[in-house]
Specification:
By secondary structure, the chain is α+β, with helices and mostly antiparallel strands. It is built from 4 helices and 13 strands.
């Protein structure tokens, strides 16, 4: 994977006003934090930041931050996007060393759908978690965690303990955590029917309670 380098500049103005000024100047404002140093307000040229972001290799990966002749390694922790225009508005970078142990979420992807008997028979892959938190060195973050669906039938569950993790990478969540399941149409229908029945019972209970309250109010009115 090609190294991603972010050329940053330090922002003198901080807070909402400073971030707004940075955006007007064609920059994406951000914050650098972590380690034993104070947080620093920074910014990156918007076009350079978008280019790095759209590679898909920025978030959750080791990135080189460059400020003049200085370089340091960071992890891109978060990027806030505009809710309408989908333009990056702010980002968080976390200071790390290459071999530092960190916990980070890694995306889970599923392969060989056509080789899963349960899906062939009309079953559905229900993904509970699209990423799983792992513990590893900052320079050994997996690109993804692949789940092979070959041979899985209706009723199968994929748990964290079933994931094939790279060497020196450990799951940071309990092994019995369910990542995904394969359910059949009948199972889904039963779940829907149970939900409808529960809703009907609740509505009936509410109706009975309302009727009782109305009768009680009428009786009180009659006594007066």
């Amino acid at each position: 994977m090609a190294e991603i380098v972010l050329n940053v500049e330090v922002r003198e103005r901080t807070g909402t006003g400073g971030a707004r000024v940075a955006r007007r100047e064609g920059l994406v404002p951000g914050i650098l934090y972590g380690g034993d140093k104070d947080p620093v307000s920074i910014a990156v040229k918007a076009n350079e930041f978008r280019k790095a972001l759209y590679t898909g290799k920025l978030l959750g990966h080791l990135v080189t931050l460059k400020y003049g002749s200085e370089k340091q390694q960071v992890i891109a922790k978060a990027v806030d996007m505009h809710p309408v225009t989908d333009v990056p508005m702010h980002f968080d970078l976390y200071r790390v060393s290459a071999h530092q142990q960190i916990k980070i979420n890694v995306p889970v992807h599923f392969t060989n759908h056509d080789e899963a008997p349960g899906i062939k028979r009309g079953g559905t892959l229900n993904v509970v978690f699209h990423d799983v938190q792992v513990s590893c060195a900052a320079d050994h973050i997996p690109e993804e965690l692949l789940v092979d669906l070959t041979g899985l039938d209706i009723g199968a569950s994929i748990r964290v303990s079933d994931l094939k993790l790279p060497a020196n990478v450990e799951a940071a969540v309990p092994g019995d955590t369910v990542v995904a399941t394969i359910s059949g149409a009948s199972t889904q229908a039963d779940e829907d029917e149970a939900a409808d029945a529960a809703a009907s019972e609740e509505a009936a209970a509410e109706s009975t309670a309302e009727a009782a309250a109305t009768d009680a109010a009428a009786e009180e009115g009659g006594e007066e």
